[in-house]
Design goal:
Elements (H helix, E strand, L loop, with lengths): L9 H15 L5 H28 L5 E10 L2 E9 L1 H24 L6 H20 L3 H19 L6 H32 L14 H8 L9 H16 L8 H4 L5 H10 L1 H11 L6 H22 L5 H21 L3 H22 L1
Helix pairs in contact: 1-2, 1-4, 2-3, 2-4, 3-4, 3-10, 3-14, 4-5, 5-6, 6-8, 8-11, 8-12, 10-14, 11-13, 11-14, 12-13, 13-14
C-alpha cells in the first residue's frame, strides 16, 4: 500500500480531529479525550509509514499536490502538500515519538484536573508539526509554524497557577515571535521577488532552478544576492524555534510544563521545526548564508555544552544539551552536510525524548 500526495492531509487531520474532540468533550470525558488522541496518533503513524514507503520507492521524486486556496483577482493564493523522503521520515519520527509520549502522558497526568485539555493541546501540537512537515508552500508552513508556537505556549504554561510556568510560557512565546518576524519578512520578500511561495510547482517553484537563478541575479544594498538576504531572514525563524544563539533563552525555561511537554518540545516537535525548515529551503541558501548558519550553529553548540556542564539539575542539563545538539545540526547544514544534520535530528529525537521521560 502507498499514500499519494493528494491524501497527505490525512496525516495532520487525524490529530487535529482528536484536538477538536478533546476540546468539545464534556469535563468528565477523560477517557474519550485520551483515547481519541492515542488512536489519532496511531493512525497518523500508520499513514506516515505508508508515506515513507511511497517516498522511498522513488527517493528522487517530489510528489506534490497544489491547489488554489482563494483567488485574488488575476492571481490565486496557492497552497500544497509535498511528499519526499525528508517529509516522510519527519512524519514517522513525529508520530512515533509522539505516540510514545502520548502513552506516557495517560499515566503521568491521570491525577490532573485538566486531563482532557492536556490531550487537546498535545494533539494540536502534533497536528501543527505534521502540517508544517508536509507543506509545499512557505505560507502553509508559516501558518502551521505559528500554530506550533501557540500550542507550545498553551503547554508550557499548562500549570498556569504557578507563576514560573506562566512566565516561562510568555517568555517562549515572545522570544520565538522575534525570530518569526524575520521569517515573515522573508516570506513576503520571496513572494514579491520570486512570484511564488510554493516550493515545487512543475519548474516554477521557489526551490526550482528558474526562480533560484532569478533571485540569485538580483542584488540588494551592499551587493548581497537577494537569495542570501531571504535565506537569512528565513533562518531568523529557525533561530527562534530551534533555540539558537541569541534566541536560546526560552528553551531551558520550557521545562516548567509537564514532563511529556518537555519531551515533545525538546525532541519531536518544536525544536526540530527550525532544523527542518532550513533543510527544506536548502536549495535557496547561498554560500554566504550557509557561512552565517554554520557560525551560529558552532557558537550555539559550544555555548549550550559549556552551560550544561555547570548545571546541577538533571532537566536543565538536558535542556542545555538540546541547545548544544541543535547547534551541531545547524553547523552540519552550514558546512553542507545535509544528510548528517537530518540523521542527527532523527536520532536525537528518540534518545532525548527517552531522557526527559526517564528524568520525570
Amino acid at each position: 500500500m502507498t499514500l499519494s500526495a493528494h491524501n497527505l492531509w490525512l496525516i495532520p487531520a487525524l490529530p487535529l480531529v482528536a484536538a477538536a474532540v478533546g476540546a468539545l468533550t464534556p469535563r468528565g470525558g477523560r477517557t474519550l479525550a485520551a483515547g481519541s488522541a492515542l488512536a489519532a496518533m496511531a493512525g497518523a503513524l500508520v499513514l506516515s509509514c505508508l508515506a515513507l514507503s511511497t517516498a522511498l520507492a522513488d527517493p528522487a521524486a517530489k510528489l506534490v499536490h497544489n491547489f488554489a486556496w482563494f483567488d485574488l483577482g488575476p492571481a490565486a493564493l496557492r497552497l500544497g502538500f509535498l511528499l519526499d523522503p525528508l517529509a516522510a521520515f519527519m512524519c514517522v519520527m513525529v508520530t512515533f515519538v509522539g505516540l510514545l509520549i502520548f502513552v506516557f502522558s495517560t499515566g503521568y497526568m491521570k491525577e490532573d484536573a485538566n486531563y482532557k485539555q492536556f490531550f487537546c493541546f498535545l494533539s494540536l501540537f502534533a497536528a501543527a508539526m505534521l502540517g508544517l512537515v508536509i507543506a509545499n508552500s512557505l505560507l502553509l508552513l508559516f501558518i502551521c509554524w505559528e500554530l506550533v508556537g501557540l500550542a507550545s505556549y498553551l503547554l508550557i504554561g499548562f500549570w498556569f497557577h504557578k507563576p514560573s510556568a506562566a512566565a516561562a510560557a510568555k517568555k517562549a512565546f515572545i522570544t520565538t515571535r522575534i525570530g518569526d518576524l524575520g521569517l515573515l519578512l522573508g516570506l513576503l520578500w520571496l513572494q514579491h521577488s520570486g512570484g511564488t511561495l510554493l516550493f515545487y510547482d512543475g519548474g516554477a517553484g521557489a526551490l526550482e532552478p528558474a526562480v533560484l537563478s532569478s533571485l540569485a541575479g538580483q542584488t540588494v544594498a551592499g551587493g548581497l544576492a537577494l537569495s542570501t538576504v531571504i535565506g537569512l531572514l528565513v533562518f531568523c525563524g529557525a533561530v527562534g524555534k530551534s533555540g539558537q544563539f541569541p534566541l536560546h533563552v526560552w528553551l531551558p525555561d520550557a521545562m516548567e510544563g509537564p514532563t511529556p511537554v518537555s519531551a515533545l518540545i525538546h525532541a519531536a516537535t518544536m525544536v526540530a521545526a527550525g532544523v527542518f525548515l532550513m533543510a527544506r529551503v536548502y536549495p535557496l541558501l547561498t554560500a554566504d548564508a550557509l557561512a552565517v548558519i554554520a557560525f551560529t550553529g558552532a557558537i550555539t553548540a559550544l555555548l549550550g555544552a559549556s552551560i550544561a556542564v555547570a548545571q546541577n539539575d538533571i532537566k536543565r542539563v538536558l535542556a542545555y544539551s538540546t541547545i548544544s545538539q541543535l547547534g551541531y545540526m545547524m553547523l552540519a547544514l552550514g558546512v553542507g552536510s545535509w544528510v548528517a544534520a537530518i540523521f542527527h535530528l532523527l536520532t536525537h529525537a528518540f534518545f532525548k525524548a527517552l531522557l526527559f521521560l526517564g528524568a520525570g
